[in-house]
Amino acid sequence: MTNRIQRLLFVLAASFLLAFGISGAQAQEDARPPFVFAVDGLWPTLDPVIGISTTGGRVHTNIFDTLVRRNYDEDPEGNTLVPGLAESWERTSPTVWTLTLREGVLFHNGEEMTSEDVAFSLSAERLWGEEPMAPRGSNFARGLVRVEATGPYTVELETEFPDATFIARLTTAIGFVLPKAYYEEVGTDAFGQAPIGTGPYQLTEFDPSERAVAVAFDEYWGEPAPFSQVTWLVVPEFSTRLAGLASGQYDLIINVPIDQQDVVASTPGVKLLVNQVGNYPMFAFNTLTVDGMDDNPLQDANLRKAMVAAIDMNEITEALWDGQTFTPTPFNFPEYGDYYDAEREAAIGYDRAQAEAYLDASDYNGETLIWHVVRGFFDNYETAAEFMIEEWRDLGINVEMRILDNFALAYERPFHLLNMSMSSEFTGDPYRPLWLDWGPSSSRVTASHRTWEPSEAFLEAGERFERAEEFEERNAAYLDLVAAWEDVTPGMYLWRNLQTFAMREDLDWTPGNTQVTVFDARFVDPQS
């Protein structure tokens, strides 16, 4: 029987079971309970690189495994690395990492994972070549020049320059291992609709407008999955999600508005979970003169600095979030581990007199600045923006907020400010949120909605940071990189994002301070 026929039979069998409402685990009279997670949305594809997103992250790590993991199950900030599909790793030369893979790991179609699958998953063809299948991975794969399967269970990764921290990027979406033969056979789009991974759950149904369903994969290499089946059910309205949780229809729901937290906490049989995650809502200043914005007032750094200095963001954050989170010093985040300095203050903090001085030094003549904000994308964002607009008006700066239905509309010029968020959780150091997300290969610089051009000082410090070997050298370059960013002031960070859940009272599940939701034995007490 050919592999193609085997795969077709596999898909047909899953479809048959689903048509009768029976999962593979249930068909074997699995004693484990099913689990229903009511979410506000699902990403259109489950290819874990093309689908990098908050909504995608709620599913990916249940279907796939990364080569290396961050230890969120033991440390809420996940600041150390532990083995995943790579049993071990070794830096065998200044520019080469050698991975040793776990043996006997099976994909959901029954085929064994080998080094060829790993090499394909990290290949130029898929991630970092001239026309890769999943171009969103190119930024995370920055610096890779060779990926080679050197044995059935060994892989060499070569980087352009000595990169002591490259291994941490294997905890990101590029570290998920996909089956080479199946991916090449069905193609990128089809894979995203019917993915196969090595994770604790095997996808059996996916309609991004309605639901994703995955059953326990009993050949999983790790501890058995605690649930027979996990369903991610799209329920856009919070009131409907809460009603379903209270009635026992759902086990877990996402995104509890702050003004509803007391209601949830007092609902019988329900408990509230609020935790900070490695994500920071912010806005970018459009500092450019592209696409008809030749007279853009925000070319002037003094105007940008005046706008930052005019806002008491700590007070706004406290008022909106009631002490549940905080406003960070730019790029000084707890999840940075040794790079985090709780005493460091922002170069431009709240100072009304300084704001007036910056404004007086600028060429601003009262022009209206347009702020594009995506409707409801971040809790409390629009309310915070209203407060800020009033503060700017008092200073003499006119800002108009335009609330739009999606990012495609928000990215259309003209705009002077653009809402967004920046994730900081993927590498456990400043590399991703500071250099990858603001550096020369970032969307802030290359996309159609680009908002700045890095300064020479920023680029020089970033290249030093990227190539530094020792912590002291990296830390010094990181501080120079932050200083160069603050000197330009291309944006403003608002607060550390909160993730809120409500769940049934007897459920013992811990998410860690990550946007990823995982329902395996590391995070779920099977007795709950």
TrEMBL record:
Compartmental location: Periplasm
Region forming the signal peptide: 1-27
The UniProt record lists the keyword DNA-binding: no
Top-level taxon in the UniProt lineage: Bacteria
Record keywords: Signal
GO BP field: peptide transport
All copies of domain Solute-binding protein family, residue ranges: 80-440
Gene Ontology molecular function terms on file: peptide transmembrane transporter activity
Keyword Zinc appears in the UniProt entry: no
Family (UniProt): Belongs to the bacterial solute-binding protein 5 family.
Protein name: ABC transporter substrate-binding protein
